[in-house]
Design brief:
GO terms for molecular function: single-stranded DNA binding. This is Single-stranded DNA-binding protein. About 5% of the residues lie in helices and about 65% in strands. It is mainly beta. Strands 1, 2, 3, 4, 5, 6, 7, 8, 9, 10, 11 and 12 form a 12-stranded mixed sheet that branches. It is globular, with a radius of gyration of 18 Å. The model has no long low-confidence stretch (mean pLDDT about 90).
Length: about 220
């Protein structure tokens, strides 16, 4: 069976009610925020894009539990005259939660489209930032930022542009601060896939090689 290229499963509660975003061929789409719990007890506050048709099937309400199946999507938007890459959880199915499934799982298969950015924190923790190009229908691609930690980061630092990657992890929101040239500090949020397992396969024509890493 062919592996899914882009599969996302989230279970959480509605933190911000749907607001109109855009329409596609006359079909309205809305954006809401889903609060998805981590094992630590904190919540990832994740943007969700859903069609009016799907929302009508679940009748969303504030703080309502909700299960989503879909994909991680990216799109470009001009903000203050600058193009920004925005990440969203694109809903293909919405339903009440069932059972005790993992509340946040992502499976991606794509190509590394930028050199890995490897660094260490002031406390000595290793981090690597990756940008994965994931194909979807009609010749489009999503460009999805991913972050690796510890042993995964060391493993990712050896990768090269064009490597095919299979990633398992979770979609997370990560607050950070950005300092502007005038000294002003802005509070911002990054949305990315935190990698739990990473497997690589060289492109066709390269020496056959499969490698994997399973975290710290």
């Amino acid at each position: 069976m062919e592996k899914p290229v882009n599969a996302l499963s989230l279970t959480g509660t509605i933190a911000h009610m749907p607001e109109f975003s855009h329409d596609v061929f006359g079909e309205p789409f809305y954006q809401l925020t889903l609060a998805v719990p981590r094992l630590s007890g904190v919540h990832d506050m994740l943007p969700v894009t859903a069609s009016q048709r799907l929302l009508d099937m679940v009748s969303p309400a504030q703080d309502m539990p909700l299960h989503l199946e879909g994909q991680v999507r990216s799109y470009n938007k001009m903000i203050d005259g600058v193009g920004r890459l925005l990440i969203t959880a694109f809903a293909q199915r919405l339903a009440p939660p069932e059972g005790n499934e993992n509340p946040n799982t992502v499976l991606l298969c794509g190509a590394l489209c930028k050199p890995p950015a490897y660094r260490t924190t002031p406390f000595g923790r290793e981090i690597a930032d990756l940008m994965l190009a994931v194909n979807r229908a009609f010749g489009k691609s999503d460009y999805i930022p991913c972050i690796a930690w510890g042993r995964n980061a060391r493993f990712a630092a050896q990768l090269t542009v064009g490597d095919r990657l299979m990633i398992e992890g979770r979609l997370q929101s990560r607050p950070y601060q950005k300092q502007l040239p005038d000294g002003t500090v802005l509070d911002k949020i990054a949305y990315e896939v935190s990698i739990g397992r990473l497997e690589t396969e060289r492109p066709e024509g390269s020496p056959a090689e499969n490698r994997f890493s399973t975290g710290e």
